[in-house]
Amino acid sequence: MNKGVQNKLAVDDWTRAQRTFWEVRTLKVILLVLVLVLVVVPCRATEGWTRPMTCQSSEASGESNPGGGAASRRTVECDESRVSLAMKELNSTGWYWGSLSANQAKEILQDAAEGTFLVRDSSQRDYLFTISAMTSAGPTNLRIEYQHGKFKLDSVLLVRPKLKQFDSVVHLVEHYVQLSKTGHKKAPKSQPSTPRNGTVPLLLTRPAYATIPPLQHLCRVAINRSTGRVRDLPLPNRLKDYVADYTYNV
Questions:
Q1: Would you list the domain boundaries of the chain?
Q2: pTM score
Q3: Looking at residue 155, what is its pLDDT?
Q4: Lowest mean pLDDT: which of 31-35, 103-107, 154-158, 228-232?
Q5: Local structure of residue 166 (DSSP, 8 states)
Q6: Fewest CB atoms within 10 A around its CB: which of 39, 48, 84, 175?
Q7: CATH superfamily, region 70-187+200-213
């Protein structure tokens, strides 16, 4: 067999492998969509849709309240709306534990693998939420700060300006889950778990579920992991709206 024929066969094999990969991936999305069609539509048809709250100023509603008082009220309304939406998303995840003490979180995570995490209400009045996670040195807690309509991790003063800010708690968690996965893949296997300076790396890789989410929610999370183009899927609009209502992959 000459070299040209061998090259052509190699290209054909590679093309078939690519086609098989995309066919399997497409089939996976279609199966998940099928489950959504069978499960979500009957449920949503009877329950109706819940729309996210939006920020509305008093001026938009036809009221006239000039001055700083009106601006202050609009800020409060927007904060309430942002926190309400964050709570709505958290309640959908299954890994939000609500009112849970630090000691209770420690007991839950004590025998878990490194990277296991949960989100709970903060025990401190100045913070709304806390991430409890299992590290190589044991369970630890990291508070989530809310300021000026954004959520970010609490940290020391020098590091705080460098931390990313997010519109929701789930978005924040999704970011650090992705960061943990990519950073863990890049780290050499010989690298010690505890750096020489005594700090312990925080990994968020596996949620600890308080309750198992509904099947339709798990399906839309899997769809979000498979494709970022939900609007292009051959779905009824009500299903696209349901999937788009939770755009995260965690």
A1: 70-187+200-213
A2: 0.70
A3: 80
A4: 31-35
A5: B
A6: 48
A7: SH2 domain (3.30.505.10)
